[in-house]
Design a protein that fits this description.
515 residues, 3 domains, Rossmann fold, homodimer, globular, binds calcium ion, 20 strands, GD_AH_second (chains A, B), Archaeosine Trna-guanine Transglycosylase, Chain: A, domain 4, alpha/beta, 29% helix, seven-stranded parallel β-sheet
Chain lengths: 515, 515
């Protein structure tokens, strides 16, 4: 905690009863608790008059609704939330972090791709242009798994990129570009080896040539770019009956699998990692254990020349001043303001604001409101200068390295889908309440904020950052352990979600209406 | 076609070449084609000066952009679309159809439910409160299928009700009630036997008690309504590890399966059918073969006391005058205006209008614009008076029978999902271009508009309405054949989509923003 904070967090399993005397050597030492305080919740360290600012992380997380005595439980009903910081008059690139010493020599075992990117997995992806084909693609995936995969042991799996996009989406609406480019860029994720195999219906609005126009991806099989992507079109006159559709997809998959199967992992520098960080099911420990450990690992990655994406617009909105000041240039700061401003207006159209983000689980876990949640969330980004900004669904260029703000909703699945589209080859997800999150497209390392969760979900949590709260590890040590785990997983070690085959859906961000 | 129409449709496979003389006994007999006209496309029957109204279905489908000679191909580039009819000054309940003679004595073999509804399938459904649990539910479904289903042979299957809803949806936004009530009502679909089994994460915004509050469903297993639905909560402290979560879901499913397995099909009157009709991948034949056949079958169902839902707001918008005049009462007409007006404003917020509905496939199939598409689409509703209107996600009451306008987007998956929520136990889907649509929750009868498609997709199309265009069947005969097929499928005969296990996703209509 920061020395100027008015509150401290109760770390003990089960919380602390009223009457407890806070122990020596800790913030508030000697203070007597006037209320029972649940684990992860806040206790007032000093008397706070009604209307006073209440600071945590050295920022005001609210004002006291009534007078709060030292030793009281400071829960969300005692605080009024501050208004959102205006997006004008912000400090623009005033405090970009100095470039830290390069971290050299570390490698992982990855799959090099034709476009220069590197995969951490070797997957056959089947792109669907439209939800109409999802049932057929799912059956084709089952047949490929059963009949073909055993012949291609170097291929890690086959993934049908199912999504809900259909002709219902108003394709010419101003915002419809977001789901379209998201689908395009997911097909080009580094874990799919630059191989594109499309299943199309035939009459859909989002035709294969619109989804993947010439030049959007490298052609690997000698065809001309103008032919568009390798596509099985179900409405093709050549398809007589359902089985001929399935047979066609299976046969078209065979040469792609053969090319993927010929690849081998090789040592590549850490700079080829593209790590998306996210938190979900957050509690008050997220901001003091798991997220700071992720932040430290993010700094190590950036020092090694890798790319780290952080996201979740509503969870950075209240930290906008930190973000714009940390931008590497005024142009980057302006891009941050542009993305967050666009999102403010998007929420306004639906008559909500950023406060719609917090959940009952957040509050039960001790997070009073979105300001406090945001301060804990943004710690995942570490301390590097912010070097680039991506709009939703955009893909990183090869020269966009370092710490990147990829503007996305905070929804775990929408954020993960957009980070996949951006080119993520490794996902790190912190959780306090616990979630069995996993993706078929990319390994997800799950980091628990508390030891109790890590013990209970022993075969779902890949790392326990609760050891920081237990005093067993420093933030730096937990961050280094996470960095080492990232290299191992990137090299092929399977996460718990992979072992159990836990796959969440791709969920598109579609701000456009459906017809 | 209507005698006042200015255009006729070329029915022939492969279309007709320029120079063809239209045969005797047909509209435009003796006319020489000045262009090649593709199958399903329109030919001008008379000279149309620039700016003239062009009528089909006896309504203006547009105005001639330039002078069009008799015999020319009338494609979408030659027509300007008329503006949308204002929602004021409409004829309100001026022409409700007279009540037709009751059709009595017909039954099907269905599963009677505790709430009075009737299932056409006997399915175990597992409700998910949030996308977070989807990976775990999918693994549980696989184990239940493998380990339990063989012991319960009267149960047709187990369905995980996966959806994309998550904490990202702004739950207090004015429109967020739509996805919430949709999920609630899908769990209560008649094909799930009034059994509710919920898998919850624990920290989600949409808590089980908010999704399924006391009174929203009948309790079957002796628990008190205040306990809420039978729920496996993954974050329960009792769950030590992933396997204990799976074991818990599997064990909780066992008594539900036993209750479902004890049920038997019994003869029930046709009045217990709740049929949702929809079209997708439409062509110019949709409005002259499949949709009129569905309309005739809809009239038979209504005469038998059953419920028929038609939907697809953007595809009825241009027929609003027909709808309000056919309403059974002024209140029903006002509800139609309310729903279509709400939808107009929803589209406006996203800066599109109803014309965003048409697809390249529609146009290639001969549908020039949404007006022409709408006139062909609405024929599915038959000729009965419209007796009720449902807002998106609402569930039919037991006393809401007859022809119902269930207001939904036209997107096949969103419309199907909302019709499931409304209580659909049988789905009829017409297609011209062809789509392999299917749902895990409800049988889908697919009706082809053309014989060529029915021949090519012989094991995907359940009925060929193309026989009408071929002169082999009248609309009435095709409608009667569809009516008989509906009774057979409702009684357990499996559709092609069921035989191939083709399952499209549930797609929620969420007009609220995501955070
Ligand atoms: Ca988060
Ligand atoms: Ca998140
Ligand atoms: Ca339609
Ligand atoms: Ca439709
Ligand atoms: Ca799915």
């Amino acid at each position: 905690m920061h020395p100027a904070d008015h509150v401290a967090i109760v770390a003990n399993d089960g919380g602390l009863p009223a009457g407890t005397v806070l122990p020596a050597g800790m913030p508030g030492a000697g203070l007597i608790l006037l209320d029972a305080v649940p684990q992860g919740h806040k206790v007032a360290l000093c008397d706070l008059p009604a209307g006073a600012e209440v600071r945590r992380y050295n920022v005001p997380i609210g004002t006291a609704r009534t007078a709060i005595q030292a030793g009281r439980w400071v829960h969300e009903k005692l605080l009024d939330m501050p208004g959102a910081r205006a997006l004008t008059g912000l400090p623009m690139a005033t405090q970009p972090a100095p470039v830290a010493a390069a971290l050299t020599g570390r490698t992982f075992m990855g799959f090099r791709n034709a476009d220069g990117s590197v995969g951490t997995r070797n997957l056959l992806a089947i792109t669907a242009t439209v939800q109409c084909v999802a049932g057929v693609v799912a059956q084709a995936v089952r047949r490929i798994e059963r009949e073909l995969l055993p012949q291609f042991p170097n291929v890690d799996g086959v993934v049908g990129l199912e999504h809900s996009y259909g002709c219902g989406v108003a394709i010419d609406a101003p915002d419809a570009i977001i789901p379209i480019r998201t689908l395009r860029h997911i097909s080009l994720n580094p874990n799919f080896g630059c191989e594109v195999l499309v299943v199309s219906l035939g009459c859909e609005k989002l035709q294969p040539s619109r989804l993947l126009p010439p030049g959007s991806f490298p052609i690997r099989d000698g065809r001309s770019a103008e032919d568009g992507p390798d596509t099985v079109c179900l409405q093709d006159a050549a398809h007589i009956g359902f089985m001929s559709m399935l047979d066609d997809i299976v046969e078209r998959a065979r040469p792609v699998l053969a090319r993927l199967n010929a690849r081998r992992r090789e040592p590549v520098p850490v700079s080829e990692l593209v790590v998306g960080v996210q938190c979900g099911g957050s509690d008050a420990f997220s901001g003091v254990t798991a997220n700071p450990a992720v932040g430290h690992a993010a700094d190590l990655l950036v020092r090694a020349g890798a790319t780290v994406m952080f996201s979740e617009n509503t969870e950075v909105r209240d930290a906008v001043e930190q973000l714009t000041s940390r931008a590497a240039s005024v142009a980057v700061a302006e891009a941050i303001v542009r993305e967050l401003g666009w999102y403010d207006r998007y929420l306004e159209r639906g008559r909500v604001d950023r406060s719609a983000n917090t959940t009952p689980g957040n509050k039960a876990g001790g997070l009073s409101n979105i300001v406090e949640k945001a301060m804990g969330s943004i710690i995942k980004s570490g301390s590097s200068a912010i070097s680039h900004v991506l709009a939703p669904g955009e893909k990183l260029r090869r020269d966009q390295r370092g710490l990147v703000f990829a503007a996305t909703p905070a929804s775990d699945f929408i954020c993960g889908t957009l980070q996949l589209a951006a080119g993520m080859n490794l996902h790190v997800f912190t959780t306090g309440r616990g979630t069995p999150y996993g993706l078929a497209e990319c390994p997800v390392i799950k980091v628990a904020t508390r030891s109790e969760l890590a013990r209970r979900w022993h075969d779902l949590m890949d790392l326990n950052a609760g050891r920081i709260a237990d005093g067993e590890q420093t933030i730096e040590q937990a961050g280094e352990a996470l960095f080492e785990l990232m290299l191992a997983v990137a090299s092929g070690e399977r996460t718990w979600a992979e072992q159990h085959q836990l796959h969440n859906a791709l969920v598109l961000f579609n701000p456009a209406p459906v017809t």
